[in-house]
Write a structure and sequence with these properties.
Layout (H helix, E strand, L loop, with lengths): L1 H22 L2 H14 L3 H13 L5 H37 L11 H4 L9 E3 L12 H9 L1 H24 L6 H16 L6 E11 L2 E3 L16 E10 L2 E10 L5 H17 L6 H12 L3 E4 L2 E4 L1 E2 L5 E4 L9 E2 L15 E9 L6 E2 L5 E4 L11 H13 L5 E2 H6 L6 H9 L3 E4 L2 E2 L6 E10 L4 E3 L7
Antiparallel strand pairs: 1-18, 2-4, 3-16, 4-5, 6-7, 8-11, 9-10, 9-11, 11-17, 12-16, 13-14, 13-15, 17-18
Pfam families: Peptidase_M24 (PF00557)
Enzyme class: hydrolase
Family: Belongs to the peptidase M24A family. Methionine aminopeptidase eukaryotic type 2 subfamily.
């Protein structure tokens, strides 16, 4: 019995000695605390480890798994939060940068400027007696009140700049003229967000070639193709609420025509510089002619003095009225009417190697309803119906036969002639110099603001 008691006490002794080592000594407590800090484990996991070291049995293991799942869920939630933050910051940075125009342009210009503030054109100070305007508080206040008008014409100008920038690359030798016009016009409709008479194309695309100076666009079925030796005038307009931007430039691929283009471009810039409030229109014409006719161009071994084209001129622009009554000549001796504050003008010049006079020739494509026409009794039913179509789609903005075809009009030639005969509509046939000559054109729309002159359609190209 004593032997058994001794053996039993010897077997139990180590177990009793083990318990205090794991739980009650200060050294073990310190180590446990140290482990807690080091591993940063939850309190319940640390307690489980103590129980396991005491009994050698896995107690609370289910709790550990639950906590592990909780940790994973917490990590997933943090990851989702981080992703959301990144997404938010990315969208913010995208918002800051804004949209960028595509190539070819397809995004409406108003979407590129969500603030509603469109780029200002080139501003030029008035000369001499009008210098005080730039610092006048009264004149600045007038401009502030007209902000919606400024934004409208600047939006139309930005559309013009973006369209012509693309069309310069598109218009190459071998491309059909009708494709150039329709590509250009479809792009205008898209970028300006065509909306009936509130926004859209201001007049048909003029793409007159060589000795044809103005008012030519291909009618349906025309097979004319642009050639390397052609001199093409691209004249097109945009409008917002009837506020028209009229701007034109010349494309020539053969460098032999460069002096001709330079002469006309400089003549236009001269007209812009001379323009201003209280300036006489005839004085602008004299300045234009002096610059234009100081240039010569050599073509085919012959030297030609560049001449200003008589019979064509710049003009004032009104709401839904491309020619509003005042003319800006290209030669001296013109009218002595003065420019006035708040007016819009198209300063355009034509230079030619021909005679400097134009005549009507070729098949007509351009038409416009007369601005001041009243009620005219029409007997022809088809003419009445066509007039209703013109009023709805164009009003007093110019149009062409292709535009009538596009909106579904058919067999309208007799009715159109009747409207012209009755004085309701005016036909605008192509204007031509002598065959074999070359005519170039450049044009900008300017606005005589109360404080300064703004060249609305100015761009990096010209």
């Amino acid at each position: 019995m004593e032997v058994e008691n001794i053996l039993g006490s010897q077997q139990l002794a180590p177990q009793e000695n083990d318990l205090p080592e794991a739980t009650s000594t200060q050294e073990s407590d310190a180590e446990l605390k140290k482990k807690k800090k080091k591993k940063k484990k939850p309190a319940n996991v640390a307690a489980t480890e103590v129980v396991e070291s005491i009994g050698g049995i896995q107690l609370n293991s289910g709790k550990e798994e639950e906590d592990g799942e909780g940790d994973e869920a917490q990590a997933d939630a943090l990851t989702e939060t981080d992703a959301a933050k990144k997404k938010k910051s990315k969208s913010k940075s995208k918002k800051k940068k804004g949209l960028v125009q595509t190539d070819p342009p397809s995004i409406p210009v108003k979407d590129l400027f969500p603030s509603g503030e469109f780029p200002e054109g080139e501003t030029q100070a008035y000369k001499d007696d009008n210098l005080w305007r730039s610092t006048s508080q009264e004149k600045r206040e007038l401009e502030r009140l007209e902000k919606p008008l400024y934004n409208a014409v600047r939006q139309a100008s930005e559309v013009h700049r973006q369209v012509r920038s693309y069309i310069r690359k598109y218009a190459k030798p071998g491309v059909a003229m009708v494709d150039i016009c329709e590509t250009l016009e479809d792009m205008v409709r898209k970028l300006i967000v065509e909306n009936g008479l509130k926004a859209g194309i201001a007049f048909p695309t003029g793409c007159s070639l060589n000795w044809v100076a103005a008012h030519w666009t291909p009618n349906s079925g025309d097979k004319t193709v642009l050639q390397y030796d052609d001199v093409m005038k691209l004249d097109f307009g945009t409008h917002i609420e009837g506020r028209i931007i009229d701007c034109a430039f010349t494309i020539a691929f053969n460098p032999v025509y460069d002096p001709l283009l330079e002469a006309v471009r400089e003549a236009t810039n001269t007209g812009i510089r001379e323009a201003g409030i209280d300036v006489r229109l005839g004085d602008i014409g004299a300045a234009i002619q002096e610059v234009m006719e100081s240039y010569e161009v050599e073509i085919g071994g012959k030297t030609f003095q560049v001449k200003s084209v008589r019979g064509l001129s710049g003009h004032s622009i009104g709401p839904y009225q491309i020619h509003a009554g005042k003319s800006v000549p290209m030669v001296k001796g013109g009218e002595q009417t003065k420019m006035e504050e708040g007016e819009f003008f198209a300063i355009e010049t034509f230079g030619t190697t021909g005679k400097g006079y134009v005549r009507e020739d070729l098949e007509c494509s351009h038409y416009t309803k007369n601005f001041d026409v009243g009620h005219v009794p029409l007997r022809l039913q088809k003419a009445k119906q066509l007039l209703g179509t013109i009023d709805k789609h164009f009003s007093t903005l110019a149009f062409c036969k292709r535009y009538l075809d596009r909106i579904g009009e058919t067999k309208y030639l007799m009715a159109l002639k009747n409207l012209c005969d009755q004085g309701v509509v005016t036909a605008l046939p192509p204007l031509c110099d002598v065959k074999g000559s070359y005519v170039a054109q450049f044009e900008h729309t300017i606005f005589l603001r109360p404080t300064c002159k703004e060249v609305l359609s100015r761009g990096d190209d010209f």
